[in-house]
Inverse folding.
């Protein structure tokens, strides 16, 4: 969809939703059902939010998979079952895609577009949002479903710009597979992400060194296969 083809003339709608993660997808669905004209804007090329971006090896939820299931639609709930108690990223992203297809949510989103400003016009009682494509969208309501962790923070390490090896960030993991075989890998951070990465990448490499400023206290999740099978029927 391109809701905002004309950069010269602002596009008007009832509600702007920024973000196509689990929050933004629900907002689009809910407001559409209430009869509002909603437009979603998402920087990524598809739905899923953090589960679209975080494709690093070992990425999975630490809350039970079933808690990710949308409870608002009985149809959606009945048509999906999780294969593991703590689902891995590909399955959570597959679920987001399944919901987007099933509820026809994608047609309301403009993807690969970043909102660069949102300014409240007190006189017109409108939010005027601008995108990195130079488009302007106006609405009385603007929902920031932008999530708490969608912008990664680069580590401030002296000399990092001179590092000659491949530098990967968990949040912006490439879509193509990475060949780690026989390589030496350093992982910075031992929070839940670092630990997930080390467990998977450590199996493939010659040497895996991890480093963190503080000790993390993760618990083994002991992921188990769900009694029922996955994938939509
Ligand atoms: C590996 C991992 C495991 C996690 N496990 C759990 C868990 O077990 N339990 C739990 O509760 N939470 C967990 N989380 C946290 C996660 O943030 C939430 O689960 C949830 O998916 C967040 O959804 P959201 O829609 O609020 O935001 P997000 O999924 O972050 O979606 C926000 C979207 O907004 C877009 N966006 C941001 N700014 C702009 C802009 N200016 N213009 C356009 N688009 C923009 C981003 O591209 C992103 O797609 C985990 C996260 C990760 C990465």
């Amino acid at each position: 969809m391109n809701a905002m083809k004309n950069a010269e003339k602002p596009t008007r709608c009832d509600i702007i939703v920024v973000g196509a993660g689990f929050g933004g997808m629900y907002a689009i669905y809910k407001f559409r059902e209430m009869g509002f004209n909603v437009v979603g804007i998402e920087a990524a090329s598809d739905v899923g939010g953090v589960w679209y971006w975080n494709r690093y090896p070992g990425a999975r939820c630490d809350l039970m998979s079933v808690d990710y299931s949308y409870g608002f639609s009985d149809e959606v709930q009945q048509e999906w079952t999780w294969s593991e108690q703590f689902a891995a990223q590909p399955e959570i992203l597959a679920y987001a895609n399944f919901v987007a297809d099933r509820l026809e949510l994608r047609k309301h989103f403009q993807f690969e577009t970043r909102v660069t400003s949102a300014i409240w016009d007190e006189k017109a009682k409108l939010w005027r949002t601008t995108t990195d494509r130079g488009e302007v969208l106006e609405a009385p309501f603007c929902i920031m479903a932008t999530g708490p962790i969608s912008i990664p923070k680069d580590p401030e390490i002296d000399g990092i710009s001179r590092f000659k090896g491949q530098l990967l960030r968990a949040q912006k993991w490439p879509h193509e597979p990475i060949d780690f075989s026989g390589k030496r890998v350093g992982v910075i951070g031992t929070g839940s992400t670092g630990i997930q990465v080390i467990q998977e990448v450590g199996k493939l490499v010659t040497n895996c060194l991890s480093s963190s400023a503080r000790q993390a206290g993760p618990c083994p999740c002991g992921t188990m296969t769900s009694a029922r099978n996955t994938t939509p029927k």
Notes: The pocket of flavin-adenine dinucleotide is lined by residues 18-24, 41-44, 49-50, 52, 54, 59, 61-63, 114-115, 145-150 (CB under 6 Å).
